[in-house]
Amino acid sequence: MPGLEPGQGKPLITYQKPNSMGKTLARILKYMLHRKWMMIMVALFVITSAGAGVAGTYFLKPLIDQGIIPLIGKHPKALDFRPFIQTIIVMSLIYLFGALTSYVYSLFMVQISNSTLNAIRKDLFNNMQDLSIKYFDTHTHGELMSHYTNDVDTIHDAIITGVTQLLTSSITVIGTFVMMLILSPLLTLMIIVMLVIMLIAIRMVGAKSAAYFKKQQENIGIANSYIQEIIEGQKVVKVFSHEDAAKNKFAGLNENLRQASTSANTYANVMMPVMTNLSYVNYAFTAAIGAMMVIAGRMDIGSIAAFLQYTRSFSQPITQISQQFNAILAALAGAERIFEIIDEKPEQDDGYVVLANMAKNRDGKLDEKESRTGLWAWKCPQADGTVSYTKVTGDVRFIGVNFGYEEKKLVLREVSFFAKPGQKIAFVGSTGAGKTTIINLINRFYDVPDGQILYDGININKIRKNDLRRSLGMVLQDTHLFTNTVRENIRYGKLDATDDEVIEAAKLANADGFIRHLPHGYDTMLVSDGSNLSQGQRQLISIARAAVANPPVLILDEATSSIDTRTESLIEKGMDQLMKGRTVFVIAHRLSTVRNADAIIVLENGEVIERGNHDELIAKHGKYYQLYTGKFELT
């Protein structure tokens, strides 16, 4: 982010105008038109409401000329108040009707606004689910959350007040202009000159304001992201006594936001007094020239009174538009940020091989079934229109794989290894050696630019990503539990799992014992990522979640890193049951957990430097021997 280090003087802010305000506005209107009939009703009621205001003002002319002036100088007994009363009643009815239509279209706008935001949030969330892991790796959680909070809120405010205000003001300006032409073309010409001056002022100030509002929204996202990060990592902050450092960094981010917000609102708020004072000048000139025209006999008092009121009505909508410019610009800036995510290209998937449920027929051959059978095969379309089936066995092979998260910066170099069906393969090596990257590639979180990864002899680039991931069970180092019951968190691995299957999976992971001792057993509600459980208990539920999926390939990424030695010994048998008959990939820092692996692959700087079982690698006296005997620290 441009600027000085947190806590230092004045940060450098780079200003950026929205790329296309017109296109952004058009897209918001497109969402609003999902309630087309409501929009039509709003337009009709807005026209009626604004028309009532314009018509009501015109009645000042007969009120003065026919209801007041004839009464001047007459004897009290000769006064006839009927024209005055009749005109007042007509004006009251017109204004009352205008107020009623305003109330009705306000109700419609509430529904339009909520349905519009509902559709925008839905598109935003749905498209975000289709984005690649790379996108989330390069954007902070707080930044993404700000789209659902700040950006959506600004659109809501703009729709509720800004849209109707723009419609009302536009119709009022047009109606008022027509009535002024009828009353006095000469005075109307003078109003047009002043209007041009006002529009020039709006354009000059608005251009600056738009750029600053864009920057304000960006800085809100950055600040919120940091706040969320610090809240999530509060224990780490306390442990390392970094409270002052956190305060200083937030002060810098907050200063960035303050400067951007001050600049944005300064220009936006300047617009209102500028418009107001110009309208006062306009009113004064109109009153002076109108008075001279009355004296000269070229205009009656009722007409000049109505015209002066129209002058206020003419400049007031323009002033109101300038007043709403703040909300409108903020909404456009927020909407543009939202649409950037909606337009973000989803995760590319050119795979055409799918996972099919299979069952053996009487002849011992496999037939495809619609329901889940626990027996899978890869269904591959052929050029002649037929399909072939390859039984899923869990044979995984890396052949000359090169990969880097950034161009020209390889993380893996010519990595080749194989995992036969049912084998347990362990990856060891120091931090940054490439262990987790291999797991990311097996899942196709990232695609391989050079080399091949074969799954049962099929290049995984040909396998549809969802089907590939359905065949893989994962237990991650960073356990994530959802706000739901323990039962539903385990069932997340297989959404159609029965209660018996959930309990069986929990027993397999040795989680059943502690779950039954929870306040409500399997129906205990977990909140805040399972904060009411210990780290080890959360990990056990995560293991049970993988077990209920019953996948042919299992990936354990530091699965027991958060479990103490006693708890680890309790789940070893369950893990052995879970791994039986499956191809298993294990990443572990505790080398004692990989001794029974069929093959241990030692990685260093993205290259495979050793492979063999525990006894073979110890006999070699190489890097694994150094790691295992403690002669080389595994960091």
Mean pLDDT: 81
Low-confidence stretches: 1-18
CATH class of the largest domain: Mainly Alpha
* Helix proportion: 55-70%
Q: β content, as a range?
A: 5-15%
Estimated radius of gyration: 36 Å
Total helix count?
Answer: 19
Write structural notes for this entry.
By secondary structure, the chain is α/β, with parallel strands linked by helices. It has three domains: 21-342, ABC transporter transmembrane region fold, CATH 1.20.1560; 355-391, no CATH class; 396-629, P-loop containing nucleotide triphosphate hydrolases (Rossmann fold, 3-Layer(aba) Sandwich), CATH 3.40.50.300. Helices cover 58% and strands 13% of the residues. It has helices spanning 21-32, 36-58, 60-68, 82-129, 133-137, 141-183, 185-232, 234-239, 243-295, 301-342, 435-442, 465-470, 486-491, 499-508, 512-516, 535-549, 565-579, 614-620, 623-629; strands at residues 354-360, 366-369, 376-381, 387-391, 396-403, 412-419, 424-428, 450-455, 458-459, 472-475, 484-485, 525-526, 553-557, 583-587, 599-604, 607-612. The strands form four sheets. It has a six-stranded mixed beta sheet with strand order 10-13-14-7-15-16, with helices on both faces. The longest helix has 53 residues, at 243-295. The two termini are 31 Å apart. The model is unreliable at 1-18 (pLDDT under 50).
